[in-house]
Amino acid sequence: YYARARYLHRAAVQVVDQYGGRIPESISEISILPGIGPYTAAAILSIAYHRDHAAVDGNVIRVLSRLYRIHEDATRGPAKRRFQELADGLLQKGQAADFNQAMMELGATVCQPQKPSCTVCPVQCHCRAFHELSDPSGLPYKPPKKERPHHDHVAGVIKLDDKFLIIQRPLDGLLGGLWEFPGGRRRESESLTEAVTRTILESTGLTVKTDLALPTVTHAFTHFKITLYGFCCTFIKGAAEALTCHDARWVSPTQLADFAFSRAHNRLIDIMKKEAAKGQVEIFASAAK
């Protein structure tokens, strides 16, 4: 989700530079634009240009898995190809726009994940899941969820001349382009305070001393969970540089709201404001106003 705006901007620039401002009409050309995958490409070409491409999203997969009683993991390559082939086979030439929107609407409003409205479904007579299963909502098949690993992360709140140091994550990768207080993942062999001083030195070149431990924040990502340990830090020496991050800036407390922070660090800021309002976190007191 965080990368969509950047991909949209990159795609817009590429369309202007390479195609004179008009989105390309071929599947091969549109698919190379940043952020454009098979579903988005098919949706754009069918709806905007009336090209015969079936768009397969989660709603369509749900409809097809029940219609044909397919008990396969839709996230795997072979199943993805099968669902695409089935959708392509149902598509009538010249009607791709209506077909794609109807299939997505059917999945979103009738063939819902839980408690599908089978009695009013227009394709009920063809649906194998309805006729052969006691509960069609068991499809599409979802493999058992794996236990998500847990990591400890640290963050240092460094205040110098009434300004805080914040860093911007690399533009690509997890949480690309979002801002946060400097820090990183704790190694198994080090303490939390050692992790703070190490990660700040590695990412910004600053030497700091850890002071007050702040309230912890827990956050769950798709594939792992973290506990974020924040510390108020005292600046010792160095000039802030963007070493392993994309950017590093000193900002006033009121300027923090102008930057897009990751959710965990936003929660850390909120907690610190509440603590400051109670007089328990002096370093952040000016931001609580």
Automatic annotation (TrEMBL):
Alphabetical GO biological process terms: base-excision repair; mismatch repair
EC supergroup of this enzyme: hydrolase
Assigned keywords, A-Z: 4Fe-4S, DNA damage, DNA repair, Glycosidase, Hydrolase, Iron, Iron-sulfur, Metal-binding
PROSITE patterns assigned: ENDONUCLEASE_III_2 (PS01155), NUDIX (PS51462)
Known EC number: 3.2.2.31
Domain Nudix hydrolase: 149-275
Pfam family, one: NUDIX_4
Molecular function via GO: 4 iron, 4 sulfur cluster binding; 8-oxo-7,8-dihydroguanine DNA N-glycosylase activity; adenine/guanine mispair binding; metal ion binding; oxidized purine DNA binding; purine-specific mismatch base pair DNA N-glycosylase activity
Family, as annotated: Belongs to the Nth/MutY family.
Name this protein carries in UniProt: Adenine DNA glycosylase
Species the sequence originates in: marine metagenome
